[in-house]
Each structure stands twice: as structure tokens, then as C-alpha cells.
Amino acid sequence: MSVVTNTTTIGAIEAPSRRNTELALLIFAVAIPVFAYANVGLAMTGKLPSGMLGYGLGLGLMAGVAHLVVRKFARYADPLLLPLATLLNGLGLVLIWRLDQSPRLIQRAKGAWGKFSPDAPHQLLYTAIGVALFIGVLLLLKDHRILQRYTYISMAVALFLLVLPMFFPAVNGAKIWISIPGLGTIQPGEFAKIIIAIFFSGYLMVKRDALALASRRFMGLYLPRGRDLGPILVIWALSILILVFETDLGTSLLFFGLFVVMLYVATERTSWIVFGLVMSAVGAVAVASFEPHVQSRVNAWLDPFACYKTDKTGACQQIGDAIMSFGSGGTLGTGLGQGNSDLIGFAANADFILSTVGEELGLAGMMALLLLYGLIVERGVRTALAARDPFGKLLAIGLSGAFALQVFVVAGGVMGLIPLTGMTMPFVAQGGSSVIANWALIGILIRISDTARRPAPAPAPSSDAEMTQVVRP
Amino acid sequence: MNKPLRRIAIFCGLLVLSLMIRDNWLQYVRADELNAHKYNRRVQIERFAHERGNIITADGQTITGSAESTGTDFKYKRVWKDGAMWSPVTGYASQIFDATQLEKIEDGILSGTDNRLFFDRTLSMFTGEKKQGGNVVTTLNSAAQKAAFEGLGDKKGAVAAINPQTGAILALASTPSYDPSVFAGSSNKDSKAYKTLLDDKNEPMLNRALRQTYPPGSTFKVVTAAAALENGLYSGIDEPTKSPVPYILPDTANQPLNNEGPIPCENATLKVALQYSCNTVFGKISADLGNEKMKTEAEKFGFNKQIFNPVRTDASIYPKDNRPQNAMAGIGQASNRATPLQMAMVASAVANDGKLMKPYMVDQLQAPNVDVLSKTQPEQMSQPLSAANAQKLQKMMEFVVTDGTGKAGQIPGVTVGGKTGTAQHGVNNKDNPYAWFISYAKTDNGSPVAVAVVIEGSDTTRDDIAGGKLAAPIAKNVMKAVLDGKK
């Protein structure tokens, strides 16, 4: 496939694979977190941390193996996705390690559970599993179109994953975890996000023409026929209901957005956006008026400092604490390891890890981090544009749209832009499921981009080429 | 399908953009406001992140310090040397209960956040030196303070001493006292200690020298005498006053004002009246002058207004009152109230030839490198009496010590002027009276020290000897401590 016999109009010159670009970027993506690691150690204890070498080697090794696999099995893949994910993951590890060193959090953990166990080693392990899954995706998924075959199985699996946490106790007010003895807790919603995107893509690809064309006009909106829209609407409503029941608002918002975006892309009808906005407004008001958990969060969003007067112990102070954390970071930040973002308490290294970025790396660091996320989304959208098959397009836009929404919902929640809904910042926040699922997501995007950017194969030598002769008179 | 894709791309871009705008809003526009927010614990953490500057006596002794604290995110906590002795001067500075008095007022300097320390902060940022607070150099004399505090011992009371020539406060003691070190930290132990102190019926945290007013009793007769001389009621201190015994209070049917014991008060001269502390004479003077003139004179001495030295001192009260009550106020009873500092000011104005200097207790503010940031200049507050009248009054007060009720205040070889007082207390005088003594010592270069001592709950006699017996020895020791330091 690499040697192109010059018989077609496309691929006359081999598309550059950009693998060396990826390698060069990866070197930066590993070096920056290693320097950050050294920075934390120097700031907090005055000497280079002992685990620095092992950490650097570990991250480098994972990135290297991932790169080699991409070089071999996805030659034409987008060269930015892997380095971006590596850099974010590496920075996340540094931030978690930094919070592990916080005497305040150690003391708090000892007070609450009698012992303190650092999160960074776990996160490193989860990263390794995530990278392994990434490699697995690239090795097993030779062509993303295979996923099309599993449209309805995906649906079943996604619903199963979503229902599962109902049978486990709530943690911090949300039933989004399942605990497996000996392994820890898993947040199935993170995986369901990818799987439901596969289902939507598969279904919409088949039905898109019917949805777009066989519709009736109703009050200025084109409404598709029930038999076309019905099944997907049912699945979607079901998943939202489950999530609302589990009070996992972030994920329900994510699923909603995912659904609207994919429907819009599939049908190319703007009315879906209007429809989606109206429904989300209705849904938000309905949920907010029934669910006390949501009400308290909306109140905390409206006035983050109100609860300092009334409720001295509750988790409602988190938003105010996070905002003050950002404020004290200022333009340049206090420097890694020198802030007080750990004042936020138990969620400092999960939902609120962004406050540490804000406080210790400042506005400059936050802009850089948001740009990194923006770049991942941008590469995802580009992949969708470049993809040649509707399934690939839908899947790529679904995954990158979900990624963008997740970043917005978490970061917006932590910064007080929207009510806090409780999700993890992809790659950066502490949490195994999130890291693993997001590596899988990157793996799928890389696979789609590889297919999209791959030069068209040389036409097979035609068996009747010889037979078609110019008949000379 | 590419058209909607491009729109989605724009939408995602807008999401990221809105996050960026929000972040700029938080971290750039609102940064200062959030950083100084009252709920922001960082403000507290920063405040205790480095060693606090010290409070130092005039003779160079450091009375505070900083200790590393454990088990909290506050790195340092405040400690005091002889905390119980010095707490009326320093106040406290706790990690959880805020701060009071000097520790609070000069907090900017002590914690190093004051703008006057900006240059030092910037410099230490570049040199990498540890950030540190500046020092507060007080006017207090450690020997005098010790004499005052030990003299009070386990009695309930207060001492205030001033340098009459400058207004510099030399001693401020209050008993029972408390050691602010016991609740300087943030542990449960500290909270408990604080609560215990608050609940203590003896009010150890009350600064009696500045924040408690007492009826000044006979010590107020000095003010009444000054008013008599200033208003020309009597031309000299040896001129007999036309005063009967008993003196019937004006506007009353037949309510007599008596003296404590059989003393020669009838038509006594001012000098003799002060020597024996005649209620009849001074009650009549006050009545003859009237409420207006008495009030004016008392206010010249500093009554009826709060004094900031820079610590707030409660206003002493000379009331607007009817005639019989005004007569009683003239001998330091009725609604007449004074702080120990106020009565020290009365003595100091007399000793300083009638000039009352504004009391102050912060001499200098220093940067951590001992550069002087500001120095207090002595300032005249008022002139309650002319120099000539002041000298007459000095003669009277010195006579009290040599031949009157204040013999316990005598110091060999030194001219001492004083006045005793025993203030009635409680309805129908049923509670223990307060024993007072105000005095000054004089050398060839004027007077270096004036003292006021008050002791609550003296359970001995009710006559004027009580002030002489209980309070005068303490005053004497404080004056001696200052005089010894001058040698």
C-alpha cells in the first residue's frame, strides 16, 4: 500500500505519515511532566524527588510503546492526538502526586479513614492499563467500521453499564460507582459514553436519510417519522432517566449533548439544535425542582459564598474554595507545590484538580491546559471531517463532541460558570475509569484518523486489463 | 455531512473560549478581590507562614516571640515571655481567635503586610531571605512593669504609669491576668483554654488599666482642687475655705456629706483639706463651681473621651448632673468614673507643671532589618492648669505624702506627690471599696514618672488609709523602678 503505482488520481504522492512529528512531540510531552515533577519536589522538599527517574522512565516507556504501535499499525494517524493525551496524562500524574504530598490532605485522610494511601501510584497503574487498552484498540480494531456490526450490542452493553451502579451504594450523593472487591471502584458511565456513541453512530448512519427526508413539517420543525426516531429516542431517554435517578448529572448532560450533536450532524437539520435546547431547558428545570442534590448545587453556583455563613461543614463550600483558589493563583500562579488548593478537601485531586492548575500554574497554565484540551477536540473534529464514511464521521464527531462537553461541564463547574455536576477532567483528574476510558477514546479516534488519512489503495490489477486492447484498424 | 461538522467545530471552540473567558475573569479581573476574601483561609495561612515581628520594651527586652506550631497549616504561632505580665500591653494574637490591642493595631507591621514594608518584602523576594515581620518598640519600662505586676500580686487591680514630660506609658498592669500563649494555637486545647478564660468570673482578659472605669474616689480631689485654683475660687492653698462640717448637699432637705473620721476639716485650707482628704471641703468646692465648670476642668484632664494610645482606652466619665450629684462627683463618687490611665494622666499633668502630654506606648515601628519606619513624637494634649497653679497643687500633693494619708508613698531622698483614695462601691456602699493611689516622683529635671494604682475588693478598712496602705506601696515601687533606671 505504501508504494503507489501511479494509476489513480489520488495519492499520486504518498501522504506524509507524520510519525516523526509525533515522536518529536512525544519527547516534549514526556519531558514537560518530568520537569514539572522535579519542580514540585524542589518546591516542597528542596530536593529532586526520588521517584523522578522511575516516573520519567515509566511515562516515557508507555509513550514509546504507544508510539511504536501507532507507527506500525496506524501509520497515517493524526500525529497530535497521542502526544496531547500523553502530556495531559503526565501533567495529571504530577498534580496528583503533588496533592499526595499535601500534609493537609494526609492529615485529613488519616482523620477520616485512619490511614493515608497516595493516589499517584494507582493513577500510574491505571495509566498503564489505559495505554494497554489504547494499544489493544489499535491492534484489535483494524478498521473502525467493524464497530458498525455491534450497533445493537453496544446499546445493550451501554444500558447495562448504566444500570449497574444502581445496585451499589451512593458515594458523595451520586450513584455512579460500582465497587469490585480487591480492584476498587469503577465508574461505568465513562465507558458507556464511548459505547453509546458507537450505538448512535451505527443507528444514525443507517437511518439518517429516513430521518432527514421522510419527515413531516410541524410548527416549522421537520419531525421524522416515529418508526425512525422512536428507538433512538427511547434508548436516549432511558439512559437519561437512569442517570437522573443515579443523580449523575454531568453524565446525563453529556449524553444529552452527544445525542443532539450526532442527530444534528446525521440529519443536517438545524431544527434539532432548537429542539435539543428546548428539551434541555425543560429537563434542567424539571430536575432542578425535584432533586435536592441538584438544588443545593444550583444554589452554590448562584452564590458560592452564601453557604459559608449557614453551613460550616458541608461540601457546598467547595465552589467558593475553588474560586478563591483560582483567584489566589492570579496571572502566573504560585508555582507548583506552593499553593493551597488542597484546602478544598476530599475532591481536590478529582473533580477539583483544575483548581490546583489554576492556583499553582496561574492563568497562564490554565490557558495552556484549556488549549491542550481544545486541540484534542480540534483534532477529533478534523478526523471527522476527513473521514470518508458516515459511520466514521459520526463516531469521530460523537467522541470528540463528548470530550469537549465533558471538559466544558467539569471546568465550567469548577470555575463556577455553570452548576457543578461532578465529572472528571479527562486524563488529568484522579480516577481509574476515566483515564482508561479516555485512552480507549483516543485509540478509536486514532484508528479513524488513520483510515481517513490513509492514501487510497492502489487499484488491484484488473484481471481483464490485458483483454481490453485498442483495436487497431 | 461536513457543514454541520464545521458548525459543531465552531460550537466546541465556543465552549473552550467561554472557559477561557471565565478563567480570565476569575484569575485576572477578580484575582485581588478573591485573594483577600474574608473566607479565604490563605490570608490566615500567609499571616502565620513566617515569623511575626516582635514587641519590644523601651529598654530593649523582647516580650514576644514566635514558635513553630505543629499539627496545623499555620507554620508559626505567637508566644509571649511573661505573658500574664505583659498581656495588658500586647493583647493577644491567636491563630483562631484573631488578635487584640497592640497585636491587632500594629498587625500590618508585625505580620509584614504593611505597605511601609513593601520595599523590604520586594528586597527579600530577590535575596531569597525569609519573610519576616517588623518590630514594634514600645515605651514600656520592664522594671516598672515588673514592679507593678508583682506589686498587684494576687489582688485584683491595675496599675498605669506615665512619663509626665512626654506622655510615654511606662507600665500597664492588670490582675488577674492571662497568658495569651495558652490559646495562641489552633488546637482543641487552645479553644478550651480560651473558653475557660472567657468564662472566668474574675475576667482575666479584661484590661483593667485601660478598659475598666472605677469611681476615682478621693484621688479625684486633685482635679477638684485644680478646678478651684483655675477658677480663682480661692487665691491660695493656705487660705481657709468657708466650709462647714457636715456639709449639707445643695438642693437636698438635710442630706449631710461627712468626712471619714474626726478630722480637722471645718474651714480647712486647701492644703490641709487635701492632707486629710476632706469630703466636706471638696464637695462644697464642686458645688460652688457648678457642674459646668467642673466638667470643663475634668475634660481638660482627658475625661469624657476615648483615648487612643494607640490602643483604645475607655472614656472616663465626668457626668452632666444635678447639683447634689455634682457635689458628690467632685469627691470622685456618684457617676464619676475613671480608668487607671486617666488618673495617672491627672497626676502627670500636675507633675508636668500643668501640661498634659498625650499618652502613647509605641515609640517606634521598625522594619525587620531594624530600620525605623516611624517614630512617635510626644504631643501636648491640653493644659488643664497653669504652671503656677500646678506648682501650688504639687505642694499640696507632696504634703499629702509627707504629712498626710500618703505616707506609704515616701521614697527616701526623692520628692513624691500623691493622693490616696477609697471609692465607695455598690448600693449603699455595701461592696468592698476600691483602694486608689495616684502619685508622681520628682527629680531636679522635672518628673519622670506618674502612677495610678487601683485595687478592687480591698477587704480592709473603708477609710482613706486603705488607698495609702494597699495601693501606695505598689506606686512607690513602680516609681522607684523608674528612678533607679534613670541613675
Regions with little confidence, pLDDT below 50 for 5+ residues of chain A: 1-12
Q: Quickly give the structural class of chain A.
A: mainly alpha
Fraction in beta strands of chain B? 15-25%
Average pLDDT taken over every residue of chain A: 84
Strand order of the largest sheet of chain B: 6-5-17-16-15
Named CATH architecture of the domain at 211-362 and 380-485 in chain B: 3-Layer(aba) Sandwich
Record the strand order, biggest sheet of chain A.
1-2
Q: Rg of chain A, please? A: 24 Å
Question: Mind sketching the topology for me?
Answer:
The complex is a heterodimer of chains A (473) and B (487).
Chain A (H helix, E strand, L loop, with lengths): L18 H27 L6 H22 L7 H20 L2 H11 L6 H21 L10 H13 L14 E3 L3 E3 L1 H26 L1 E4 L2 E4 L1 H20 L3 H19 L3 H20 L1 H11 L3 H5 L6 H13 L23 H34 L3 H25 L17 H22 L20
Antiparallel strand pairs in A: 1-2, 3-4
Helix pairs in contact in A: 1-2, 1-3, 2-3, 2-5, 3-5, 3-14, 3-16, 5-16, 6-7, 6-8, 7-9, 7-15, 7-16, 8-9, 9-10, 9-15, 10-11, 13-14, 14-15, 14-16, 15-16
Chain B lengths: L1 H28 L1 H5 L5 H7 L7 E2 L7 E5 L7 E5 L2 H8 L10 H5 L1 H5 L6 H10 L7 E4 L3 H11 L4 E6 L6 E7 L12 H12 L8 H4 L9 H10 L16 E2 L7 E2 L12 H7 L2 H22 L6 E2 L3 E2 L9 H7 L10 H12 L4 E2 L4 E5 L5 E4 L4 E3 L4 H17 L11 E9 L10 E10 L2 E10 L9 H22 L1
